[in-house]
């Protein structure tokens, strides 16, 4: 499987449960890479959607991926604070080509004041039926929504007060 090295640019590939590509982030700089954890940073990176449309991210972001959790967390650095976008997803794999995971539709948006909203529940239910998510996956995903909410409330992991600042400083130093 391999481990990306600090400073290495990697792509991020998001898939759907049916195996089809969902979205590709063209370049993210590895800030920390291990067998179980990848933290990356990007700014104004090209994103390609499954239908071929492209767009460029608007702000610097720090991304957190772990092999033990069914979610990933993106901290977006804006003028008025850090906004988080949390994807309920499979744990990642890194195959030397890209960091890859399955996106399971449910998302949590967290605001700078740490209030949050669970998003896309209707999309999740539709895809759960259409793609026939196994019951065990459904249960794992719901448990990880609860775990993620606890992390938000406890300000754990990427939600800790200095987490994004520390990793963004490292990103800026690596880009110099």
UniProtKB/TrEMBL annotation:
Pfam families: DUF402
Residues annotated as binding Mg(2+) 2: 105, 107, 120, 123
Positions of the catalytic residues: 23 (proton donor)
CC cofactor: Mg(2+)
Catalytic reactions of this protein: a ribonucleoside 5'-diphosphate + H2O = a ribonucleoside 5'-phosphate + phosphate + H(+); a ribonucleoside 5'-triphosphate + H2O = a ribonucleoside 5'-diphosphate + phosphate + H(+)
NCBIfam families: PRK13662.1
UniProt record similarity statement: Belongs to the Ntdp family.
Protein name: Nucleoside triphosphate/diphosphate phosphatase
Species of the source: Pseudoneobacillus rhizosphaerae
């Amino acid at each position: 499987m391999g481990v990306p090295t600090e400073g290495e640019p990697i792509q991020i590939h998001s898939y759907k449960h049916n195996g089809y590509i969902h979205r590709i982030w063209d370049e993210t700089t590895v800030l920390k890479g291990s067998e179980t954890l990848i933290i990356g940073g990007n700014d104004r990176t090209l994103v390609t959607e499954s239908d071929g449309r492209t767009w460029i991210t608007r702000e610097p972001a720090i991304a957190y991926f772990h092999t033990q959790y069914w979610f990933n967390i993106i901290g977006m650095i804006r003028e008025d604070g850090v906004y988080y976008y949390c994807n309920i997803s499979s744990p990642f794999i890194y195959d030397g080509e890209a960091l890859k995971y399955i996106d399971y539709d449910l998302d949590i948006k967290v605001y700078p004041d740490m209030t949050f909203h669970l998003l896309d529940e209707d999309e999740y239910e539709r895809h759960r039926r259409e793609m026939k998510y196994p019951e065990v996956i459904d249960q794992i995903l719901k448990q990880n929504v609860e775990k993620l909410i606890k992390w938000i409330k406890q300000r754990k992991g990427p939600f800790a007060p200095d987490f994004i600042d520390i990793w963004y400083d490292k990103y800026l130093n690596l880009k110099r």
